[in-house]
Amino acid sequence: MEWIEIGGLDDIPRRGARTVETASGPVAVFRTADDTVFALINKCPHRGGPLSEGIVSGKLVACPMHNWVIDLESGEAAAPDKGCTPALPVRIEDGRLWLGLDAARRVAHG
User: Fold this and answer.
1) pLDDT tens for residues 86-105?
2) What is the structure's pLDDT at 16?
3) In what order do the strands lie in the sheet with 90-93?
4) 28, exposed or middle or buried, with CB in 10 Å at 0-12, 13-18, 19+?
5) How far apart are the C-alpha atoms of 64 and 42, rounded to whole Å?
């Protein structure tokens, strides 16, 4: 897998997100209160709302459009809602964030 550096951990506020542009479109990179980092395609499975603008609580984000709750680890919507937004690999090395590009390309091209 090819990895690209997308910034530092400190570039993302705790319980917040920032958006990174990729070949597959915008990816939301989230940081939890305990500094765990997750990456999801920045589209709610309900109506495409920008997940990066949602409220992060634990390992969940609430879409700002219709309050669907999405699991940051899997991208799955919490019951009773159904749907999934693709999760992408992200890692931290020496305080720097790296996004797995091959997964992003697979999402973009099916």
Assistant:
1) 999 999 999 999 999 775 45
2) 97
3) 3-8, 96-100, 90-93
4) buried
5) 12
**Which pTM value belongs to this model?**
0.89
Q: How far apart are CA 65 and CA 4, in angstroms?
A: 30
Domain count, the chain: 1
Integer Cα distance of 50 and 110 in angstroms:
21
**Residue 80: is the preceding peptide bond cis (ω within 30°)?**
yes
CATH of the domain at 69: 2.102.10.10
Domain coverage including residue 84: 3-109
Measured at the CA of 103, the angle between CA 102 and CA 108, to 5 degrees, comes to 95
